[in-house]
Specification:
Helix content: 40-55%
Strand order of the largest sheet: 1-2
Largest sheet: 2 strands, antiparallel
Structural class: mainly alpha
Radius of gyration: 27 Å
Number of helices: 22
Strand content: 5-15%
Oligomer: single chain
């Protein structure tokens, strides 16, 4: 299942199709810098799907109204996508990110059942696939919260030709007698060739070294899972070949993703994939799926080497090679030329990685500095929570939470399903206590703040762009009361656009401060840079400190009658719990035999 792991799955906000569409990327980042966009190859153009009108002889007004609504939605989606395409081509990746996200969010938040409306479902798949085609190139830049990913060691060795070295092979066979492993190890010229490459090639050595360093973050967790599932623990080093232990690795050609490079098949491996999460990128859940799947392959072939070959090439392909030759032996299939080049390198490369990892002294791997193990608390959330709020209540950062939740495709937890949110270790009790003070339906916009020295109600209100009276009201602060150091405040941040009694949308403004840029302001208010430019008629990206900017769309809603303007006297923030539907996770299902792992 090896793929080139040269791209992260998170350029920012990541979106997926509802079932089996490739992953889509681009997210907001507090300190994101402008990045020159790569030149996309033949960028797709979205064409709106026409919605057929109801037959004249059937006066189904409800159906016609829905068809009109769907067509209007598709038109808006196409407009947002095409705006993103223009920004992408011009190198404005931050603005493109906002536009692409908006095009998908429009459909996800429309209230329409995307699955049951064919035109809308087709549009969703088209947009997601089109953005994916553009994003895969941009992801190579390594932006946002995710660092630029390194190539997996075996990818770097794909084009290397190994000459037989009888002396090295003999020495390795001698060392093998003292190498303790729960996986059957064999040494021959093919394995020796990879050991020679990882030892003497500067690039190969660095790739292997960094893979083994990253392994420290997940080693204890993965080996525990392998042990529980009855799989040799040294099969942890298959991740050296697949991703170099990078949980956000994504293959641009095939769509295989995660530490174990699972293909994006709907319902496969028992992992959930939807518009909010992709559990292929969850180190723990994907490792459990990997252990179960590799064990299934072993039970099918009765040989670990053939199981590894099947993991890479597909069990159907391996089975046909065995039947065609009559040899259920990997090395015999190798010698007879019945394996593709990638699979021929795959098995000996993994064996070489195991031998070298078990004998660091002999292979100059003593300088490895393993990353510390990932530790975290887990809380189950059944309503949407913005990661900025989670960062507030756990005294951490959004970047930390993103790194702890690589399966989360947005900066907000999913709606209509339960999500296992990972938060910094030791913060679970504080999280539950503080989050309970915020109504569920406000957790995507409201914030939390602990008063620091020198802060006043006015200064806090200014930093969150709200009125001091609103903070005082929500927190029951009497007029004239001073704040104490350590006071915990709920901050009622309103959505960007709020409707007034007259039907107009308040124009929200923000005064630029020293160090602000259009990118940071756009991220703060959830809009695009291009929108800021358009609303404020800006000709340049340079805006001086002190300038007041419009940060919400200056539009008016349809006029309302006088009676509708009267504010309800008992309007209050709803604190009722949102009913949560069960998380839909299928049982582990083996992908189709030959196509399952064939990714070239």
């Amino acid at each position: 299942m090896r793929q080139s792991a040269s791209m992260p799955t998170r350029f920012g906000k990541v979106l997926l199709g509802l079932a089996c569409i490739p992953v889509v990327f681009l997210t907001g980042c507090p300190q994101q810098q402008p990045v020159k966009a790569p030149t996309p190859q033949a960028p797709p153009t979205i064409t709106a799907t026409p919605v057929p009108a109801a037959a004249p002889q059937v006066p189904d007004y409800a159906a016609r109204a829905q068809a009109t609504r769907v067509q209007q939605l598709i038109t808006q989606v196409d407009r947002s996508y095409n705006s993103g395409l223009q920004n992408y081509r011009a190198g404005r990746l931050d603005a493109a990110r906002m536009d692409f996200d908006a095009s998908v969010d429009m459909m996800l938040t429309s209230g329409l059942d995307i699955r049951s409306i064919q035109q809308l479902n087709d549009e969703f798949e088209r947009v997601v696939t089109a953005v994916n085609a553009l994003e895969l190139d941009a992801l190579k830049q390594g932006t946002g919260f995710s660092p630029k990913l390194e190539a997996a060691p075996l990818d770097a060795a794909n084009d290397v030709t190994f000459s037989p070295d009888p002396e090295l092979t003999a020495r390795l066979n001698a060392e093998l007698r003292t190498t303790v492993s729960d996986f059957p190890l064999a040494v021959n010229d093919y394995v020796a060739g990879f050991i020679n490459y990882f030892t003497k090639s500067p690039g190969g050595h660095v790739h292997l070294l960094r893979s083994l360093e990253r392994a420290g973050k997940y080693k204890d967790m993965i080996q525990k899972i392998l042990r529980e599932e009855g799989v040799p623990q040294d099969l942890i080093y298959l991740a050296v070949a697949e991703s170099g232990f990078q949980p956000q690795a994504l293959n641009g050609k095939s769509g295989a993703g995660g530490m174990w490079q699972f293909m994006p098949f709907a319902g496969a491996y028992g992992l959930t994939r939807n518009g909010w999460v992709d559990e292929r990128f969850d180190p723990e859940k994907s490792s459990r799926a990997y252990a179960r799947y590799i064990k299934e392959l072993y039970n099918q072939f009765g040989d670990w080497y053939l199981a590894l070959a099947a993991y890479d090439w597909g069990p159907g392909n391996v089975q046909r090679a065995v039947m065609r030759t009559g040899y259920a032996d990997f090395w015999e299939l190798y010698r007879r030329g019945n394996l593709p080049g990638e699979t021929r390198n795959y098995v000996p490369g993994i064996i070489a990685a195991i031998i070298m990892a078990k004998n660091p002294q002999q292979y100059n791997l003593t300088e490895i500095n393993p990353e510390p193990p990932a530790v975290y608390d887990t809380v189950s959330v059944s309503s949407q929570v913005d990661l900025r709020l989670v960062a507030d209540v756990t005294n951490s950062s959004v970047a930390t939470l993103v790194s702890l939740n690589p399966s989360l495709l947005r900066l907000v937890t999913p709606r209509d399903m339960t999500f296992d949110l990972h938060i910094p270790a030791g913060t679970k009790d504080e999280f539950q206590k503080r989050i309970s003070a915020i109504p569920e339906d406000k957790r995507v916009s409201w914030r939390f703040h602990e008063v620091r020295g020198g802060e006043t109600l006015n200064s806090i209100a200014e930093s969150f762009h709200v009125h001091a009276s609103e903070i005082a009201s929500v927190n029951d602060i009497a007029d004239g009361s001073a704040l104490d150091l350590g006071d915990e405040l709920v901050i009622p941040v309103a959505p960007v656009s709020t409707t007034s009694a007259s039907g107009a949308v308040h124009i929200q403004r923000y005064t630029m401060r020293r160090g602000d840029t259009l990118i940071t302001v756009a991220d703060r208010f959830g809009v695009s840079v291009e929108q800021l430019r358009r609303w404020n008629t800006l000709r340049s990206s340079q805006v001086s400190a002190g300038k007041s900017l419009i940060v919400s769309e200056p539009v008016r809603l349809a006029p309302q009658g006088r009676g509708a303007r009267k504010k309800s006297s008992n309007a209050k923030a709803s604190t009722s719990a949102k009913s949560s539907s069960k998380k839909t996770v299928t049982t582990s299902k083996k992908p189709s035999s030959s196509a399952a792992k064939k990714r070239r």
